[in-house]
């Protein structure tokens, strides 16, 4: 188990991709940095996320930075490749990659064609959806989040000043309020409609890019090559221990 403090780099853009990571707790932002200091946050990773998977012999195309205190497990690529022999693990991995592709297409459309208020509303709708259980759409929701105006700006392609104005407009519409690290959503269903988010996209957000609960890996594969009993019947994917 590895532990990182808020602001620590898990890995940097251009580093060798010799490990894959499984997030146990905390928030991580995946981002690309430009030479002039501009940053784009492409993903917010929550507990259960499997990340750092890159094409063979290609370094990390993004950096991963802890947005809160973080605990995670680093899985050597050689061990990760061994897991791909397990059908249930492959099925879960394929689902994760399919969801990533779907979300990336939707995000590209929102970033290229969405207004400033739509981009921010969509981001907050996504995070609220991922952090709450189904059936809470019409209830008042308060969630502790590590979102500053700068972080939201980096995720939406706006300036911090513009984000401040947009948050004020969302607050005036009684949709979302951010105060002291807490996001308050009075009615998630209204926010979803306002952000132009489809039911299908919300479903994909809930499936997400996570192996939840987080994977547990043995340091060495079991002697019978069963990958620790193959698939967990309850979760539908391989479950390992790091003890």
Structural overview:
The chain has 243 residues and is of the alpha+beta class. Strand 4 and strand 5 (39-45) form a beta hairpin. The chain has helices spanning 77-83, 87-113, 116-131, 149-156, 160-172, 188-195, 199-207, and strands at 2-4, 9-11, 19-25, 28-33, 39-45, 50-51, 63-66, 70-76, 141-144, 176-179, 182-185. Strands 1-8-3-6 form a four-stranded antiparallel sheet. The chain folds into two domains: 1-80 and 213-243, Sandwich (Jelly Rolls); 103-207, Jelly Rolls (Sandwich). It is built from seven helices and eleven strands.
List keywords for this structure.
four-stranded antiparallel beta sheet; 36% helix; 7 helices; 2 domains; 21% strand; 243 residues; alpha+beta; Jelly Rolls
């Amino acid at each position: 188990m590895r532990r990182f403090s808020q602001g620590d780099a898990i890995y940097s853009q251009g580093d060798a991709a010799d490990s894959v990571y499984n997030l146990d707790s905390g928030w991580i932002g995946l981002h690309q940095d430009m030479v002039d200091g501009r940053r784009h946050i492409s993903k917010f990773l929550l507990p259960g996320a499997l990340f750092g998977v890159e094409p063979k012999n290609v370094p990390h195309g993004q950096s991963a930075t802890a947005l809160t205190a973080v605990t995670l497990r680093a899985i050597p690529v050689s061990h990760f490749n061994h897991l791909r022999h397990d059908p249930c693990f492959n099925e879960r991995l394929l689902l994760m990659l399919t969801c990533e592709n779907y979300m990336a297409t939707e995000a590209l459309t929102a970033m290229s064609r969405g207004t400033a208020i739509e981009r921010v509303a969509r981001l907050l709708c996504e995070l609220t959806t991922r952090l709450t259980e189904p059936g809470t759409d019409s209830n008042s929701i308060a969630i502790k989040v590590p979102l500053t105006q700068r972080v939201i700006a980096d995720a939406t392609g706006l300036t911090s000043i513009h984000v401040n104005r947009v948050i004020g407009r969302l607050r005036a519409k009684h949709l979302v309020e951010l105060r002291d690290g807490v996001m308050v959503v009075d009615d998630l269903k209204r926010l979803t409609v306002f952000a132009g988010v489809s039911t299908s996209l919300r479903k994909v957000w809930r499936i997400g890019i996570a192996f939840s609960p987080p994977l547990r890996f043995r340091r060495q594969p079991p002697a019978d090559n069963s990958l620790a009993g193959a698939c967990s019947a309850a979760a539908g994917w391989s479950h390992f221990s790091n003890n």
